[in-house]
Structures are given as structure tokens and as C-alpha cells.
Amino acid sequence: MNTKKPIGIFDSGYGGLTVFKSIFKLLPEYDYLYLGDTARAPYGNRSFQTIHQYTLECVRWLFKQGCPLVVLACNTASAKALRTIQQIDLKTESPNKRVLGVIRPTAEVIGNYTKSKEIGVLGTKGTVNSGSYLIEINRFFPDVKVYQQACPLWVPLIENGEFDKPGADYFVERYIDEILSQSPKIDALLLACTHYPLLYSKIRAYLPSHIQIISQGDIVANSLQDYLARHVEMDKDLSKGRTHEFFTTTDDTMDFDFYAELFFSGKVKSSFAEII
Ligand code: DGL
């Protein structure tokens, strides 16, 4: 019998691996199960109903594999599906399981990165239109002004391996210009999509040097560590065998492994997860 109780990490595709990389580095003692819904990615331009349905199906699958705790390492899913999953679905189907997102932990600390009290948030259309960052940041840092920019073409570029190719420059420059044109006082730029760290060097090249780029990996990892220290029962329930497994909803796992290794900066050998 499988007695493993891993921490589940979920993203629509590869992006969550940038978060998993930080979590795995900070908390190597746990077992992990990563699921990328690559067959249905990107989620960014999809409707609320669809993102909720897809995310819930993936969360249920992770629960079925034995995960008592799932981290949605995806801003779009955190913005569009997390609240309904936490407040409705979990209550009726799995009251002892927990699902955490990436928006709240980021909002809790983001104000510490700005001196000018003006920050830019780059995300998918779904994340930006949800207004989740405006609401959450205002709750923790009411004096910080938030400007948002949707970058709908970045995830497709990244998922198709174009993130370090010259063709990506046009779209990086375009969205950077758009966010900076909203205010000259922005001094911190949040990459509010777990895919975007792959574009880091191109984003850096188009940004004035005084503007800091903030990626979420370490923020989410620290927040998870803190959560486990505060929720001892959950921590005890999780198995600690130092294993990690990768699953994709695409039947071509070799393709997943190739790109996943770029995001995770380590060896990936995935299996097919039949969710639908
Ligand atoms: N990586 C996801 C995020 O953080 C989004 C990617 C997608 O559009 O599917 O929002």
C-alpha cells in the first residue's frame, strides 16, 4: 500500500516549477508531487468557470494520489479558482485537506520591496482582470499604489521554448513599455505569473536599473515553511521521504521533461496523469 503523503504542487504547465524549485531547496525533507496541466495550458485567457473546473479536477487528482496539502503554484488559478475551492468544494468533499495559493503570500510582503510606494504587477489576463492583487495588496499595504499590465503573449512564448530567442524581445519590450508608461515612480516590478522568471534576463534588459524585479519562488517557499510551522497537525501528516515525482496531462512526457528541466534546473522524468 502506498503510504506516501506528499505535498502537491500544481500549475497549468511548467511555470509552477519555478516555485517548486524554491520550495524543494528550502524544504527538501518532504515528498512532493508536481502536476502540470500542459494539455490544457495556458489558462490565462480562459473563463472563470473553465479555470475553476480545470483546477478543481487537478486538485482532486492530487488528493487521490494521497496529497493532504496542495499548493496552486499558479497565479491564474489562485486568482480565479482558489477561493471557490477553499470555501465551497473543500468543505463538502475534503474538509481535512488544504489548498494554498501564491497571491496572498506575495501580497503580504510585496510592500517591503518598494521605496516609492508604487509597484507594477505583470500577469496573465485572468490574474489582472480578477483584480486580486489590487485587493490583496491594499489589505496589507494600503499606502502602496499598484499598476497592472496583462502580458497575454508571454506564456505561449515561454511554453513554446521561445523565451531566450530574439523573437521574444518585441513582446517583452512592448509590455514593459506599457507598464512603465503608467507611472514613472514604479520602483518594483512583480512577476505575477510563475512562468515569467524564464524571461528574467530579457525583462532586466528592458528595465531601468533602479527598478527591482520580484519573482515569487522564494516568497512562496518561505510562506509555506511558515504555514507548516504554524500547522503542526498538517506537518505531522505529511510524509518526509525526500522524493519528488512529476506528472503531466500531455501524453508526450518526453516533451514535458525537456521543457520542465529548463524551469526546474534539474533532471525531470515525468509520467502521464490521466485526469480527463
Ligand atoms: N503560470 C500561470 C500563472 O502563474 C499561468 C500560465 C497560464 O496562463 O496558464 O498565472
Number of strands: 10
* Cross-sheet strand order for the largest sheet: 4-3-1-2-9-10
Distance between the termini: 25 Å
Overall SS class: alpha/beta
The radius of gyration over CA amounts to 18 Å
Number of alpha- plus pi-helical segments: 13
Overall geometric form: globular
Write the topology of this structure.
Layout lengths: L6 E5 L4 H11 L5 E5 L11 H17 L4 E4 L2 H6 L1 H12 L4 E3 L2 H8 L7 E6 L1 H6 L1 H9 L4 E6 L3 H6 L7 H14 L7 E4 L8 H7 L5 E3 L2 H14 L1 H6 L6 E5 L4 H12 L5 E3 L4
Parallel strand pairs: 1-2, 1-3, 2-9, 3-4, 5-6, 5-7, 7-8, 9-10
Helix pairs in contact: 1-11, 5-7
The structure holds D-glutamic acid.
Report a brief summary of the structure.
With 276 residues, the chain is of the alpha/beta class.
Label this structure with key terms.
alpha/beta, globular, 276 residues, 6-stranded parallel beta sheet, Rossmann fold, single chain, binds D-glutamic acid, 2 domains
Give structural notes.
With 276 residues, this protein is an alpha/beta fold. It has two domains: 7-101 and 218-272, Rossmann fold; 104-215, Rossmann fold, CATH 3.40.50. 46% of the residues lie in helices and 16% in strands. It has helices spanning 16-26, 48-64, 75-80, 82-93, 103-110, 125-130, 132-140, 154-159, 167-180, 200-206, 217-230, 232-237, 253-264; strands at residues 7-11, 32-36, 69-72, 98-100, 118-123, 145-150, 188-191, 212-214, 244-248, 270-272. The strands form two sheets. A six-stranded parallel sheet has the order 4-3-1-2-9-10, with helices on both faces. The chain has a four-stranded parallel sheet with strand order 6-5-7-8, with helices on both faces. The longest helix has 17 residues, at 48-64. The radius of gyration is 18 Å and the shape is globular. The mean pLDDT is 96. D-glutamic acid is lined by residues 11-13, 15, 41-44, 74-76, 124, 127, 155, 193-195.
